[in-house]
Design a protein that fits this description.
Blueprint (H helix, E strand, L loop, with lengths): L9 H25 L9 H22 L4 H18 L1 H8 L21 H5 L1 H16 L4 H26 L4 H9 L2 H6 L5 H22 L3 H18 L2 H20 L4 H27 L8 H14 L3 H4 L13 H6 L1 H10 L12 H21 L1 H10 L1 H20 L3 H7 L4 H22 L1
Helix pairs in contact: 1-2, 1-7, 2-7, 3-4, 3-6, 6-7, 6-11, 7-8, 7-10, 8-22, 10-11, 10-12, 12-13, 12-20, 17-20, 18-19, 18-22, 19-20, 19-22, 20-22
């Protein structure tokens, strides 16, 4: 297996610079085609430059500070897959697409192709990242940094789609959303490398945009159906539990969106039970059909068992360090898990705090968390719980973002026991929770001024 010290070389840096400039040129072209119609495109190039710089820093930190880790191992897994593909296309396709063929086997690898890390190969959801990244490995000429660039671009497209969606629905706030969605240090760093987090972040955001286009706006159906399926596939094969967090919010979103079209209170009252029944039953059918694809997250009991396994695994100091936290032990019962919910949600969204810093890498996350905590308290005091709830229930996408963030935070906070892992695992909720608070604040103030 290739040593970590050889993954980045001086020629790689030159290749990376060329690709960096090429990606920015493409971004500038896209920007010039859209900026007259969509003013928020003025931020496209700046945001993408920040994302690529974040990917570069991520690569350098993992190679020279951590001396390797998951991201370098994912890259080596992609390298081995592409090695087999170039030797024998039938074997390579079987491995990359994870088919039922007998070629989809460890025996298809050899000294010439290289071997993926064995711990990744044994876990299908972990090795999926190497499979997804194999295309980027080819496009990136086998460069670790450039492969990371393309992973970052995929992640960026998803966030950009969500950013555009918020701008479509709430015009006039593009600058504020730019800072809290596109150039937030946590998203730039932890959501840019060859990691599960980058794929999950991009797919979760992009899937939200696809859902809006298909079910709410009902425009550009073909491409959005295609990308919806792609993003569902990525989530199912990496972190299926994200879908469990998305689903309740989606049901509420589509229900609220259709109710919002009714003008009279009587009409809304009559339609509410019908919509709940239709969308609830439809959601049950969909969830039942995909539960078999969700592995251990397909039912409550196995999901709780998996949470216990993850919780114990993250306590291994030799793998994750000693910066642990303890919100209570998962006892395997639903009641026991829900009793930990308030602490789990707070932990996932607002921790680590200043006195919980365990490494220099966590400092930026702590600063962000502190700002978010003070802003949340200010919002709660300034707006008030009743008006806050009223705004959420009157804005379907903000209700969706809130519900997803809380459920996702609950799951992550329960299972995680290590702050180093927590700052990565929570990344997908950030582009939903931060803008949700920001827009609730803006909308509530706007309504307050209109009454004066």
């Amino acid at each position: 297996m290739q040593s970590v010290s050889n993954i980045i070389s001086y020629p790689d840096l030159l290749i990376a610079l060329i690709y960096f400039l090429a990606i920015i040129l493409v971004a500038n072209f896209v920007k010039s085609r859209n900026i007259n119609k969509y003013p928020e495109y003025k931020y496209l190039t700046k945001a993408l430059i920040a994302k690529l710089i974040g990917a570069t820093i991520f690569c350098l930190v993992y190679v020279f500070y951590y001396n390797g880790g998951d991201t370098t191992n994912y890259f080596l897994g992609s390298k081995a897959l592409v090695g087999v593909l170039f030797q024998d296309i039938e074997k390579g396709i079987a491995l990359i697409f994870n088919t039922d063929s007998y070629f989809n086997s460890w025996k298809s690898f050899n000294a010439g192709s290289g071997y993926p890390p064995t711990y990744m190969w044994r876990d299908t959801q972990t090795f999926a990242v190497s499979r997804f990244s194999s295309l980027f490995y080819i496009l990136g000429s086998g460069s670790f940094i450039v492969t990371s660039f393309f992973t970052a671009v995929f992640s960026f497209i998803g966030i950009w789609k969500l950013y555009r969606l918020f701008n479509m629905l709430y015009p006039g706030y593009s600058k504020g959303l730019f800072y809290i969605m596109l150039v937030l240090p946590t998203l730039i760093f932890w959501g840019s490398g060859i990691m599960k987090d980058s794929y999950v972040l991009g797919s979760t955001c992009w899937l939200t945009f696809n859902f809006y286009r298909i079910f709410i706006e009902r425009k550009h159906l073909l491409w959005n159906i295609i990308f919806l399926q792609l993003n569902l596939l990525i989530l199912l094969n990496t972190k299926a539990y994200v879908l469990i967090s998305l689903f309740p919010g989606i049901i509420l979103w589509i229900n609220s969106a259709y109710l919002k079209t009714s003008k009279s209170f009587v009409s809304k009252t009559l339609k509410l039970p019908l919509f709940i029944l239709i969308f609830g039953f439809g959601g049950y059918i969909v969830l039942s059909n995909i539960s078999s694809l969700m592995g251990v997250y397909g039912d409550v009991d196995s999901a709780l068992e998996q949470a216990q396994v993850i919780q114990q695994d993250l306590l291994r100091e030799e793998a994750y360090g000693s910066n642990n936290y303890n919100i209570g032990k998962i006892d395997g019962s639903i009641g026991g898990v829900f009793s930990l919910a308030p602490v789990a949600v707070f932990t996932a969204i607002y921790r680590p705090l200043f006195w919980e810093i365990g490494s220099p890498i966590m400092v930026i996350s702590v600063i962000e968390n502190t700002i978010l905590l003070f802003f949340s308290l200010y919002l709660f005091i300034n707006v008030g719980p009743l008006r806050l709830a009223r705004v959420l229930f009157s804005e379907p996408i903000l209700l969706y973002a809130f519900v997803f963030s809380i459920i996702f935070a609950f799951g992550v906070g329960i299972a995680s026991t290590n702050f180093g892992a927590l700052v990565r695992y929570r990344v997908p909720l950030i582009p939903f929770y931060f803008p949700m608070l920001f827009l609730v604040f803006k909308i509530s103030n706007k309504k307050k001024l209109s009454k004066v």
